[in-house]
Amino acid sequence: MRVLITGGSGLIGRALTTDLARNGNEVIILSRRPERITGLPAGVRTEGWDGRTTERWHSLVDGAGAIVNLAGENIGSGHWTEGRKRSILQSRLNAGQAVIQSIKAVTNKPNVVIQASGTGYYGPCGNGEIPEEAPPGHGFLARLAVDWESSTVPLEELGVRQAIIRTGVVLSTEGGALPRMLLPFRFYAGGRLGNGRQWFPWIHITDEARAIRFLIENKSACGPFNLTAPFPLTNAAFSHLLGQRLRRPSLMATPEFALRLFFGEMATVLLDGQRAIPKRLLELGFTFQFPKASLALKDLLR
Question: What CATH number labels 2-172+202-230+276-289?
Answer without folding.
Answer: 3.40.50.720
